[in-house]
């Protein structure tokens, strides 16, 4: 072999060895990387685990906390607030009634013509109005005047299909989804503003009084007959359509539950409640806390930087506000510790709440062979390109773990209510038909989530008993429910009964 040929052969061999060494090194790095990913995933699965035994313990704990909250003020993490709703809709209601649903940057005004048993809801109309940002941080008169003026315009547009009996004042149900200390069906004092509102001079004031004065300034002759939150409105709307509705649950951006309780089961309110046999309890179940809740390092970190550390723990595990953020935190750890998306951590992945729950849902529901939706969302939302199919499958697996933990915990809460209600029904051996009125975008639009809630209820209660528990969607329950509660608590009904 000549010198040139020999040198060439040596060079080629060296190059081949270098390439081989690089390939081996890359494979080793990849192997180490995926071993790290697998370790994080195993830990996530273990910490988020919700075996049926634990879920039954959580359901029992929820029922125990409900009892404790009814027994004494401050006796439970659950507030168990009296709503003063003692007349739920029956279907007999007749007449024209209105609703105002205020719970965020938009509010809805609604009118309903009720026709009694035969006519039911004859006609309804609504309008949605956006609140200008400057009114969310201004004075109370400016905010409530804006709301009352929108209500006045809505009434002025009323057609001939809606009929108010001669000599009667218009009556309104007011859904006010902010913390309120209720003192009657028609009044309550504001505890604090949330959801970006900061209105001067209203904390401790009667919100119905504020609205009533604004309506007077607008020349509106209207009476607020019922003050409720969205959960109670949902329960009322559900009961109107199905007499077996015993509770309402909101599973959306936030979460809450309300249910029908016997007056005699509420020791702390004896003598202060109406004489009727039942009333509605606003549980405020987002604040539920139990040692049985499967809490991870991601949940603790999220809670630490939240506006209310140590509070609303159940809500932070269950509701749509937080699922996407937990998902983001898991991906961020994998990007930092295992280079899941390459050597550089994507900058957008480090931004809190950059991954919203609807994005997580879209990825979770991706059924395409190459998971193209996952690929597109990672690119559009986080600027992540060129992911492998293995990586995309890992992303979907994380969605599955987080969403199903949330759904299974929500199911355990629902079973807790079922246990409390069924025990109150004379300890019946068999569960009677019990309907849960459900509202909220998380449950309505996240199909895998809602299916998991339903299957978990069956898993906890068993096939036979779970057949008695029915979940029914009650869209816009907070609006129509408020109008129905204005009807069932009408001032004119009281006058008729007193004659």
User: Beta-sheet strand percentage?
Assistant: 15-25%
* Strand element count: 13
Low-confidence stretches: 21-32
Distance between the termini: 123 Å
Evaluate the radius of gyration. 28 Å
Q: Kindly give the count of domains.
A: 2
Overall geometry: globular
How many H/I helical runs?
17
**Text of the CATH class of the largest domain:** Alpha Beta
So, CATH architecture of the largest domain?
A: 3-Layer(aba) Sandwich
The residue fraction in helices comes out at 40-55%
CATH topology of the largest domain: Hexokinase, domain 1
The helix/strand series, from N terminus to C terminus, equals: HHEEEHEHEEEHEHEEEHHHHHHEHHHEHH
Largest sheet, spatial ordering of strands = 1-11-10-9-12-13
Task: Give the class from helix and strand content and strand pairing.
Answer: alpha/beta
Question: Main sheet?
Answer: 6 strands, mixed
Q: Please tell me the overall pLDDT.
A: 88
Describe this structure in words.
Helices cover 48% and strands 17% of the residues. By secondary structure, the protein is of the alpha/beta class. It has 2 domains: 51-83 and 242-476, Hexokinase, domain 1 (3-Layer(aba) Sandwich), CATH 3.40.367; 86-228, Nucleotidyltransferase, domain 5 (2-Layer Sandwich), CATH 3.30.420. Strands 1-11-10-9-12-13 form a 6-stranded mixed sheet, sandwiched between helices. It starts with a helix and ends with a helix. Mean pLDDT is 88; it is low at 21-32.
